Amino acid sequence: MIRGYGIDYKSMEDSGIMLPVVEAHLEFKSPVFYDEPVIIQVLVYDEPGIRLKTYYKVIAKDRNLICVRGVVTLFFMNEETRRPCRAPDYFTRPFLEEIKANSEQT
């Protein structure tokens, strides 16, 4: 997901910022069958601060059916101190436009 915004996760880790998952919630609506093509949509509605909350949909492509909905919460952490830190500016900038577009969809 973040690669699509031109952000390289490895470079972010190399600069001392980690992004561990602290919570994940999945709601399974319908099975996905073996070899069935799926589309995974990831949306962000809030500007990343210390936390990044992402919303997922897994859609069976040929059936155009939402099979899974999910919410994953991650937080920005300083690698050295292992304490939460704010998202770096280079991370938040690309999301602001996306957040605005997603808010207009609801």
Can you identify the CATH class? Alpha Beta
* CATH architecture classification: Roll
Give the name of the CATH superfamily: Hotdog Thioesterase
Number of helices: 2
Distance between the termini: 21 Å
Strand order of the largest sheet: 2-5-4-3
Number of domains: 1
Mean of all residue-level pLDDT scores:
90
**Annotation, overall tally of beta strands:** 6
Q: How large a portion of the residues is in β-strands, by DSSP E?
A: 35-45%
Please supply descriptive tags for the structure shown above.
single chain; 106 residues; alpha+beta; Thiol Ester Dehydrase, Chain A; two-stranded antiparallel ribbon; 2 helices; 6 strands
What is this structure's SSE topology?
Elements: H1 9-14, E1 17-18, E2 21-28, E3 38-43, E4 51-60, E5 65-75, E6 77-78, H2 89-105
Antiparallel strand pairs: 1-6, 2-5, 3-4, 4-5
What does this structure look like?
With 106 residues, the protein is of the alpha+beta class. It has a single domain (2-105), classed as Hotdog Thioesterase (Thiol Ester Dehydrase, Chain A, Roll). It has two helices and six strands. The mean pLDDT is 90.
Give the gist of this structure.
The protein is α+β, with helices and mostly antiparallel strands. The protein has two helices and six strands. Helices cover 22% and strands 37% of the residues.
